[in-house]
Amino acid sequence: MPLAAPLIETRLDDLVPQRQGKVRDIFDCGDTLVMVATDRISAFDYVLGSGIPDKGKVLTQLSSFWFERTTDIVANHLLSTDVRDYPDHLRRHADILHGRSMLVRKTAPVAIECVARGYLSGSGWKEYVSTGSVCGIALPSGLRESDRLPAPIFTPATKAASGHDINISEQEAGRLVGVELINRLRELTLELYDHGARHAEANGIILADTKFEFGLMADNSILLIDEVMTPDSSRYWPEDQYAPGRPQPSFDKQYVRDYLEQIRWNKQPPVPSLPEQVVIGTRDKYLEAFHRLTGRELL
Ligand SMILES: Nc1ncnc2c1ncn2[C@@H]1O[C@H](COP(=O)(O)OP(=O)(O)OP(=O)(O)O)[C@@H](O)[C@H]1O
Ligand SMILES: [Mg+2]
Questions:
Q1: Which residue has the higher pLDDT, 170 or 4?
Q2: What is the per-residue pLDDT across 56-71, written as a single tens digit (0 to 9) for each?
Q3: Which of 40, 88, 168, 297 could form a disulfide with 172 if both were Cys (CB 3.0 to 4.6 A apart)?
Q4: Ligand positioned closest to the Cα atom of 214
Q5: Which burial class, exposed, middle or buried, applies to 106 when counting CB atoms under 10 A from its CB (0-12, 13-18, 19+)?
Q6: Closest by alpha carbon to 294, among 24, 99, 64?
Q7: What is the DSSP string of 242-259?
């Protein structure tokens, strides 16, 4: 059966999203937001020329799976994934929005990315190589790239205007948003990571690291917002191929990375498109991750 066309942009007649990220389109509805995950895929900070059919559904439904499972740890922004609950002007577009969108409470986002790392990879590995620590946390010497850490660590980051994240120490994060708040966010971040990593591990998947965002309500209560433990906000590795001492294959994006290596893309525009086989292989990987983590069928 031929694949459905990927959703690249959320065009709802005359309605235009108020905000577009690399992957998500966001409709501002006053006290609420409708977040739509498209099928866009990014690599090396660029949105590629091809979409991955159903990727947005996987991201949305994986996020809602984690939101449902973590309410004992922290309240979250999810109000509904049923388009019939959306504001009138959006519910008319159920055909496009179904399965890939959520209605959420609008909050004041805390301006810190709350990262938990259980393994040494990416910017954490780079920092460790040059300083022996990550975000001011001293680590044992002699660790290899992708090694499991003695215990998961909280490594906050700020969002630079360029969109690139900058790792900061917890002290620095405390100066930015308050010591009491950052203490609470560290506890929540590590608890959420622990929950996700255990669950993933039981299903043969390593959750190497992940990024959470939190928002504050008018009464100062904390909500978990944004997306949660999706492949776009996390490093997921296949456990059966885990071998420290080098970068690990990515559960979801490895075919894409391999292809971009193969064509020797210089990681500058113009962005490449992906051959059909790479699109199909990548889609299968997203679906496999979804099935293994949730045990659910995609809606
Ligand atoms: N409940 C919420 N209330 C207010 N803002 C939210 C809520 N949930 C998520 N957000 C914000 O919405 C934005 C989502 O943007 P999105 O992730 O699509 O793009 P981005 O972060 O600008 O770029 P990237 O595509 O690289 O992630 C983020 O700034 C996030 O903090
Ligand atoms: Mg984002």
A1: 170
A2: 999 999 999 999 999 9
A3: 168
A4: 1
A5: middle
A6: 64
A7: --SSSPPPPTTTHHHHHH
